[in-house]
Specification:
Layout (H helix, E strand, L loop, with lengths): L2 H5 L8 E13 L2 E10 L3 E6 L13 E8 L2 E15 L2 E8 L9 H15 L1
Length: 122
């Protein structure tokens, strides 16, 4: 694979920065984990555990039930880990939603829509 291929954006959905970040949580065999949601799209999210000293190898190839906490309430969905990395001491990973609620009043779907509207207004 050439270097150009490795850096080419392959996502088909626009990502929207969450400022301030939303919160998400999930339970693994390691216990409960809380994370910041740095960005969202209709297909997935980028999550971050700031300054994490813990190792999270269970995330690699993991699929978990996440709860996203938005200003409109909590929303639950299943997410599959797409990638994992360490960034300046933070533990960062991307998830692909595997069963995002399709109802228009779902709090997570509403958060994505609101971020999309704010981006288009700029």
């Amino acid at each position: 694979m050439s270097q150009a291929d490795a850096t080419t954006e392959r996502r088909e959905h626009t990502r929207f920065t969450c400022d301030p970040p939303l919160l998400a949580s999930f339970i693994s065999h390691e216990g409960s984990v809380s994370a910041h949601v740095d960005d969202l799209s209709p297909a997935g999210a980028k999550l971050r555990v700031p300054y994490s000293n813990q190792r999270m190898p269970f995330l690699v190839q993991g699929e978990f039930d996440y709860t996203f906490h938005t200003k409109d309430g909590a929303s639950q969905c299943r997410g599959r880990t797409a990638w994992v990395q360490r960034v300046e001491g933070d533990f960062v990973w991307g998830i692909e939603f595997t069963n995002l609620d399709q109802r228009p009043d779902d709090p997570l779907r509403m958060a994505v829509g609101r971020l999309d509207s704010q981006t288009q207004a700029m």
